[in-house]
Amino acid sequence: MSIIADIRARAAKLSKRIVLPESDDPRTIEALNYILDNHIAKIILVGKDEVRSAVKSKNLNDLEVIDPEKYNDTPRLISEYYELRKPKGMTPAEAKEAVTGNCLIFGGLLVRRGAADGFVAGASHTTADTVRAALRCLKVDKNIGVVAGSFLMEVPNSPYGEKGVFIFADCGVNPEPDAKQLAGIAVLSADLFDKLVGKTPRVAFLSYSSKGSAKGPLVDKVKEAVARAKEISPKILIDGEFQVDSAIVPEVAMIKCEANDVAGKANVLIFPDLNSGNISYKMTQRLANARAVGPILVGLTQPASDLSRGCTAEDIVDAVAITVIRA
Q: Are 111 and 93 in a shared domain?
């Protein structure tokens, strides 16, 4: 069984409530029908009551449609959002407009209040929009202090990683993370790998250098991040800096690195910046026909997942299943 199929099956046993705010996107409705038919999650759909006519699933017991303008708790959500954003200069009128007119904000607030266990959005909104809503509505884990976009990657017929399964990060949020942020991203991504895959995470910090083969400030940043990550979570298998072949190919690791528990065996790959991370996940997805699910937003106290605007209905299903597992 593929890791994606396993995650869907595990999610179906958990009965969690996930918000899908983008009810006006046909891919959301297509995914919704599959999710309901297969009991992957209970769904809160944000939209007008008329959207029910597009739902073909017979399992309507697991569906709730909420219209922000008619929802009984909307005044409380407006008040809460105003208090959250008042220090930034938001007025009560602007808070009302945001909560009733922005489906992402409304969905995020439902999660914040505990009316739902997580939300998935981004099919018709940019990553910036989705991340902004998550940051404004949900709480950042103060122990780590960074939010990142990790991807679950499943590469078919690959001997590398965990039988072709990896976490790539950060591929969606932080353009130029510093060493402290990179360390936090690594720890968060290792935890995500453990939750989703159930195997030992082996975290490699990537660079153009393998264990001192090259020098420069970019290499120094990665080395510092490795040291910080080991301080934060000394029990996690973490090492670097590695070129990607040294990180995942045992034969190359034997030549370039001293033997350890990460070199040539890595299944969590930490990229030094957003350029390299985003390019790498898309290249792996297209050239290796890999499944790429994400950005999975890590570093928040409640789970949320972004979607590419080029996503399929299947991508939405997988993001929902992952959000259920994390909840």
A: yes
Under DSSP, is residue 240 helix (H, G, I), strand (E, B) or coil?
strand
> pLDDT tens-digit profile of 82-98?
999 989 888 999 999 99
Q: How many CA atoms lie within 13 A of 80 on its CB side?
A: 17
Residue 213 lies in a domain: yes
- Domain with 88, as residue range(s), is 3-139+302-326
Note whether 268 and 161 are within 8 A (CB).
Answer: no
- pLDDT at residue 128 is higher than 80: yes
Residue 72 lies in a domain: yes
Provide the CATH number for the domain around residue 171: 3.40.50.10750
Q: Report the 10 Å Cβ neighbour count for 139.
A: 10
Residue 294 within any structural domain of the chain: no
pLDDT grade for 143, boundaries at 50, 70 and 90: confident
Residues 254 and 234 in one domain: yes
pLDDT at 258 over 90: no
pTM: 0.89
Q: Which of 293, 278, 309 is nearest to 125 (CA)?
A: 309
One domain, residues 257 and 311 = no
Q: Does 295 fall in a domain?
A: no
CA neighbor of 42 nearest in space, from 65, 22, 23: 65
The yes-or-no verdict on residue 47 having pLDDT over 90 is no
Give pLDDT, residue 279.
94
**C-beta of residue 277 within 8 angstroms of C-beta of residue 171:** yes
How many domains in the chain? Answer: 2
Distance CA 208, CA 161 (A): 19
**CATH number of the CATH domain containing 119:** 3.40.50.10950
277 close to 241: Cβ distance less than 8 angstroms: no
pLDDT of 212 higher than 80: no
- On the 0-12 / 13-18 / 19+ scale of CB atoms within 10 A, 298 is buried
Mean pLDDT score of the chain: 92
